[in-house]
Amino acid sequence: MTTASRSTPTRGAAEPAPAPRATARSAARLAKRVAEGEPALGRARRVGRMLRTLAATHPDAHCELDFTTPLELAVATVLSAQSTDKMVNSVTPALFRRYPTALDYAQADRAELEEMIHSTGFFRNKASSLIGLGAAVVEKHGGELPRTLEELVALPGIGRKTANVILGNAFGVPGITVDTHFGRLVRRWGWTEEEDPVKVEHAIGALVPKRDWTMVSHYVIFHGRRVCHARKPACGACSLSADCPTFGAGPTDPMKAAALVKGPSRAHLLEIVGIPDDDAPAPVGREDADAP
Predict the structure, then answer these.
(1) Per the residue annotation, which of 66, 179, 212, 243 is the catalytic one?
(2) Which of 161, 212, 243, 262 is labelled catalytic?
(3) Final residue of a domain: which of 170, 201, 220?
(4) pTM exceeds 0.70 for this model
(5) Are residues 96 and 133 in the same domain?
Protein backbone atom coordinates (compact mmCIF):
# COMPACT_ATOMS: atom_id res chain seq x y z
CA MET A 1 0.00 0.00 0.00
CA THR A 2 1.10 3.57 -0.50
CA THR A 3 0.52 6.82 1.32
CA ALA A 4 -2.49 8.87 0.35
CA SER A 5 -0.47 12.07 0.31
CA ARG A 6 3.17 12.90 0.78
CA SER A 7 5.02 16.16 1.17
CA THR A 8 8.13 16.67 -0.91
CA PRO A 9 11.26 18.42 0.29
CA THR A 10 12.18 21.85 -0.95
CA ARG A 11 15.27 21.51 -3.14
CA GLY A 12 17.10 23.40 -5.80
CA ALA A 13 17.73 22.19 -9.32
CA ALA A 14 20.64 20.02 -8.19
CA GLU A 15 21.07 17.81 -5.14
CA PRO A 16 23.26 19.47 -2.48
CA ALA A 17 26.68 17.98 -1.89
CA PRO A 18 27.06 16.06 1.38
CA ALA A 19 28.84 17.89 4.17
CA PRO A 20 32.58 17.22 4.48
CA ARG A 21 33.77 14.76 7.09
CA ALA A 22 34.54 15.98 10.57
CA THR A 23 37.94 15.78 12.23
CA ALA A 24 38.55 15.42 15.96
CA ARG A 25 39.67 19.06 16.08
CA SER A 26 36.73 20.48 14.13
CA ALA A 27 34.28 18.38 16.17
CA ALA A 28 35.77 19.67 19.43
CA ARG A 29 35.45 23.28 18.24
CA LEU A 30 31.82 22.78 17.27
CA ALA A 31 30.98 20.99 20.51
CA LYS A 32 32.49 23.87 22.50
CA ARG A 33 30.59 26.47 20.49
CA VAL A 34 27.27 24.67 20.99
CA ALA A 35 27.93 24.10 24.70
CA GLU A 36 28.75 27.77 25.26
CA GLY A 37 25.57 28.93 23.52
CA GLU A 38 25.55 28.85 19.75
CA PRO A 39 24.34 32.13 18.21
CA ALA A 40 20.84 31.85 16.76
CA LEU A 41 21.99 32.73 13.25
CA GLY A 42 24.83 30.21 13.38
CA ARG A 43 22.48 27.49 14.57
CA ALA A 44 19.95 28.29 11.86
CA ARG A 45 22.63 28.09 9.16
CA ARG A 46 23.99 24.82 10.55
CA VAL A 47 20.50 23.30 10.71
CA GLY A 48 19.90 24.43 7.13
CA ARG A 49 23.08 22.69 5.95
CA MET A 50 22.13 19.53 7.81
CA LEU A 51 18.66 19.52 6.29
CA ARG A 52 20.05 19.83 2.78
CA THR A 53 22.43 16.98 3.52
CA LEU A 54 19.64 14.85 4.98
CA ALA A 55 17.58 15.40 1.82
CA ALA A 56 20.47 14.09 -0.28
CA THR A 57 21.23 11.27 2.15
CA HIS A 58 17.64 10.02 2.42
CA PRO A 59 15.83 10.87 -0.83
CA ASP A 60 13.57 7.88 -0.12
CA ALA A 61 12.39 9.21 3.26
CA HIS A 62 8.67 8.69 3.82
CA CYS A 63 6.11 7.44 6.32
CA GLU A 64 6.94 3.77 6.77
CA LEU A 65 3.45 2.79 7.91
CA ASP A 66 1.39 1.34 5.04
CA PHE A 67 -1.99 2.96 4.42
CA THR A 68 -4.32 4.13 1.65
CA THR A 69 -6.80 6.30 3.59
CA PRO A 70 -6.53 8.77 6.50
CA LEU A 71 -8.45 6.37 8.76
CA GLU A 72 -6.02 3.56 7.95
CA LEU A 73 -3.10 5.78 8.86
CA ALA A 74 -4.77 6.74 12.13
CA VAL A 75 -5.30 3.09 12.99
CA ALA A 76 -1.74 2.14 12.01
CA THR A 77 -0.30 4.96 14.09
CA VAL A 78 -2.31 3.90 17.14
CA LEU A 79 -0.95 0.37 16.70
CA SER A 80 2.63 1.62 16.31
CA ALA A 81 2.90 2.67 19.97
CA GLN A 82 5.52 0.43 21.61
CA SER A 83 5.79 -1.56 18.41
CA THR A 84 7.71 -1.37 15.12
CA ASP A 85 6.46 -0.22 11.73
CA LYS A 86 7.37 -3.62 10.32
CA MET A 87 5.19 -5.40 12.88
CA VAL A 88 2.28 -3.02 12.32
CA ASN A 89 2.52 -3.43 8.55
CA SER A 90 2.31 -7.20 8.95
CA VAL A 91 -0.99 -6.85 10.82
CA THR A 92 -2.82 -4.06 9.01
CA PRO A 93 -3.63 -5.65 5.62
CA ALA A 94 -6.04 -8.14 7.20
CA LEU A 95 -7.23 -5.56 9.72
CA PHE A 96 -8.04 -2.99 7.04
CA ARG A 97 -9.97 -5.57 5.03
CA ARG A 98 -11.99 -6.57 8.10
CA TYR A 99 -12.66 -3.01 9.29
CA PRO A 100 -12.75 -0.62 6.31
CA THR A 101 -14.78 2.17 7.99
CA ALA A 102 -14.99 4.00 11.29
CA LEU A 103 -18.37 2.37 11.91
CA ASP A 104 -16.76 -1.05 11.56
CA TYR A 105 -14.33 -0.23 14.38
CA ALA A 106 -17.11 1.25 16.50
CA GLN A 107 -19.10 -1.99 16.17
CA ALA A 108 -16.12 -4.36 16.34
CA ASP A 109 -16.21 -7.49 18.44
CA ARG A 110 -13.56 -6.77 21.07
CA ALA A 111 -12.24 -10.32 21.29
CA GLU A 112 -11.83 -10.57 17.52
CA LEU A 113 -10.15 -7.15 17.29
CA GLU A 114 -7.77 -7.95 20.13
CA GLU A 115 -6.79 -11.19 18.45
CA MET A 116 -6.02 -9.44 15.17
CA ILE A 117 -3.76 -6.81 16.78
CA HIS A 118 -2.31 -9.00 19.53
CA SER A 119 1.21 -9.13 18.07
CA THR A 120 1.60 -5.31 18.20
CA GLY A 121 1.56 -5.36 22.01
CA PHE A 122 -0.71 -3.64 24.54
CA PHE A 123 -3.54 -5.04 22.46
CA ARG A 124 -6.29 -4.48 25.04
CA ASN A 125 -5.58 -0.77 25.36
CA LYS A 126 -5.18 -0.45 21.61
CA ALA A 127 -8.46 -2.24 20.98
CA SER A 128 -10.21 0.18 23.34
CA SER A 129 -8.64 3.11 21.50
CA LEU A 130 -9.68 1.80 18.08
CA ILE A 131 -13.26 1.10 19.14
CA GLY A 132 -13.49 4.51 20.80
CA LEU A 133 -11.87 6.18 17.81
CA GLY A 134 -14.37 4.63 15.43
CA ALA A 135 -17.32 5.63 17.62
CA ALA A 136 -16.11 9.23 17.99
CA VAL A 137 -15.46 9.65 14.26
CA VAL A 138 -18.97 8.34 13.48
CA GLU A 139 -20.75 10.36 16.16
CA LYS A 140 -18.89 13.66 15.84
CA HIS A 141 -17.56 13.72 12.28
CA GLY A 142 -20.01 11.76 10.15
CA GLY A 143 -17.63 8.84 9.72
CA GLU A 144 -14.81 10.93 8.19
CA LEU A 145 -11.56 11.58 10.00
CA PRO A 146 -11.24 15.32 10.81
CA ARG A 147 -8.47 17.43 9.28
CA THR A 148 -7.43 19.73 12.13
CA LEU A 149 -5.01 19.20 15.00
CA GLU A 150 -7.57 20.31 17.57
CA GLU A 151 -10.21 17.84 16.36
CA LEU A 152 -7.77 14.97 15.95
CA VAL A 153 -6.27 15.19 19.45
CA ALA A 154 -9.79 15.08 20.89
CA LEU A 155 -10.25 11.56 19.48
CA PRO A 156 -9.50 8.45 21.60
CA GLY A 157 -5.97 7.14 21.08
CA ILE A 158 -4.83 10.23 19.12
CA GLY A 159 -2.19 12.40 20.75
CA ARG A 160 -0.31 15.33 19.29
CA LYS A 161 2.38 13.12 17.73
CA THR A 162 -0.18 10.87 16.06
CA ALA A 163 -2.19 13.87 14.87
CA ASN A 164 0.87 15.39 13.19
CA VAL A 165 1.60 12.06 11.46
CA ILE A 166 -1.95 12.02 10.08
CA LEU A 167 -1.98 15.68 9.09
CA GLY A 168 1.35 15.58 7.31
CA ASN A 169 1.06 12.24 5.55
CA ALA A 170 -2.66 11.82 4.87
CA PHE A 171 -3.81 15.42 4.43
CA GLY A 172 -0.67 17.25 3.31
CA VAL A 173 -0.84 19.67 6.26
CA PRO A 174 2.71 20.38 7.53
CA GLY A 175 3.42 18.93 10.95
CA ILE A 176 6.50 17.90 12.95
CA THR A 177 6.31 14.42 14.44
CA VAL A 178 8.33 14.24 17.65
CA ASP A 179 8.84 10.57 18.48
CA THR A 180 11.65 8.97 20.50
CA HIS A 181 14.06 8.94 17.53
CA PHE A 182 13.34 12.56 16.60
CA GLY A 183 13.77 14.00 20.08
CA ARG A 184 16.95 12.03 20.69
CA LEU A 185 18.58 13.15 17.47
CA VAL A 186 17.71 16.85 17.50
CA ARG A 187 19.16 17.07 21.02
CA ARG A 188 22.23 15.07 19.99
CA TRP A 189 22.73 17.41 17.02
CA GLY A 190 22.38 20.52 19.18
CA TRP A 191 19.23 21.77 17.45
CA THR A 192 17.49 22.18 20.82
CA GLU A 193 17.96 21.31 24.47
CA GLU A 194 14.24 20.89 25.11
CA GLU A 195 13.00 17.55 26.46
CA ASP A 196 9.24 18.06 26.37
CA PRO A 197 7.90 16.85 22.98
CA VAL A 198 5.66 19.88 22.46
CA LYS A 199 8.54 22.26 23.23
CA VAL A 200 10.77 20.27 20.89
CA GLU A 201 8.12 20.58 18.16
CA HIS A 202 7.93 24.34 18.56
CA ALA A 203 11.72 24.76 18.75
CA ILE A 204 12.32 22.83 15.54
CA GLY A 205 9.36 24.52 13.89
CA ALA A 206 11.11 27.85 14.45
CA LEU A 207 14.27 26.56 12.72
CA VAL A 208 12.69 24.82 9.73
CA PRO A 209 10.41 26.35 7.06
CA LYS A 210 6.81 25.25 7.62
CA ARG A 211 6.58 23.71 4.16
CA ASP A 212 9.30 21.22 5.20
CA TRP A 213 7.95 20.22 8.62
CA THR A 214 6.60 16.85 7.50
CA MET A 215 9.72 15.91 5.59
CA VAL A 216 12.15 16.94 8.33
CA SER A 217 10.40 14.41 10.56
CA HIS A 218 10.97 11.67 7.99
CA TYR A 219 14.59 12.66 7.37
CA VAL A 220 15.50 12.67 11.05
CA ILE A 221 13.70 9.40 11.79
CA PHE A 222 15.27 7.70 8.77
CA HIS A 223 18.73 8.85 9.83
CA GLY A 224 18.18 7.65 13.39
CA ARG A 225 17.12 4.19 12.28
CA ARG A 226 19.86 3.74 9.70
CA VAL A 227 22.92 5.69 10.83
CA CYS A 228 22.66 7.68 14.07
CA HIS A 229 21.72 4.82 16.40
CA ALA A 230 20.98 5.38 20.07
CA ARG A 231 23.82 3.48 21.72
CA LYS A 232 26.42 3.42 18.97
CA PRO A 233 26.01 5.94 16.15
CA ALA A 234 27.95 5.32 12.94
CA CYS A 235 29.90 8.60 13.25
CA GLY A 236 32.64 7.70 10.79
CA ALA A 237 30.07 6.90 8.08
CA CYS A 238 27.70 9.81 8.70
CA SER A 239 27.08 12.53 6.13
CA LEU A 240 26.24 14.99 8.93
CA SER A 241 29.52 14.60 10.82
CA ALA A 242 30.96 18.04 10.02
CA ASP A 243 27.94 19.76 11.56
CA CYS A 244 27.38 17.40 14.51
CA PRO A 245 28.56 18.56 17.95
CA THR A 246 28.58 14.98 19.29
CA PHE A 247 30.76 13.48 16.55
CA GLY A 248 32.77 10.74 18.24
CA ALA A 249 29.91 9.33 20.32
CA GLY A 250 30.30 6.25 18.11
CA PRO A 251 33.23 4.83 16.12
CA THR A 252 34.89 7.40 13.86
CA ASP A 253 36.90 4.89 11.85
CA PRO A 254 35.04 4.66 8.50
CA MET A 255 35.17 0.87 8.24
CA LYS A 256 34.05 0.28 11.83
CA ALA A 257 31.28 2.82 11.40
CA ALA A 258 30.21 1.30 8.07
CA ALA A 259 29.46 -1.95 9.87
CA LEU A 260 26.75 -0.11 11.82
CA VAL A 261 24.95 1.38 8.81
CA LYS A 262 21.80 -0.54 7.96
CA GLY A 263 18.66 -0.52 5.87
CA PRO A 264 17.75 -1.09 2.21
CA SER A 265 19.62 2.06 1.10
CA ARG A 266 22.87 1.07 2.83
CA ALA A 267 24.93 1.18 -0.37
CA HIS A 268 23.78 4.75 -1.06
CA LEU A 269 24.42 5.81 2.54
CA LEU A 270 27.99 4.55 2.31
CA GLU A 271 28.56 5.94 -1.18
CA ILE A 272 27.55 9.44 -0.13
CA VAL A 273 30.37 9.50 2.44
CA GLY A 274 32.88 7.88 0.08
CA ILE A 275 32.93 4.35 1.49
CA PRO A 276 32.62 1.62 -1.17
CA ASP A 277 29.96 -0.85 -0.11
CA ASP A 278 32.04 -3.75 -1.46
CA ASP A 279 34.82 -2.91 1.00
CA ALA A 280 32.62 -2.25 4.03
CA PRO A 281 31.76 -4.98 6.54
CA ALA A 282 28.11 -5.95 6.74
CA PRO A 283 26.04 -4.94 9.78
CA VAL A 284 26.08 -7.43 12.64
CA GLY A 285 23.12 -7.98 14.97
CA ARG A 286 20.06 -5.83 15.57
CA GLU A 287 20.60 -2.19 16.50
CA ASP A 288 18.48 -0.89 19.35
CA ALA A 289 17.36 2.15 17.37
CA ASP A 290 14.74 0.02 15.66
CA ALA A 291 13.28 -1.06 18.96
CA PRO A 292 10.08 0.64 20.14
Answers:
(1) 179
(2) 161
(3) 170
(4) yes
(5) yes
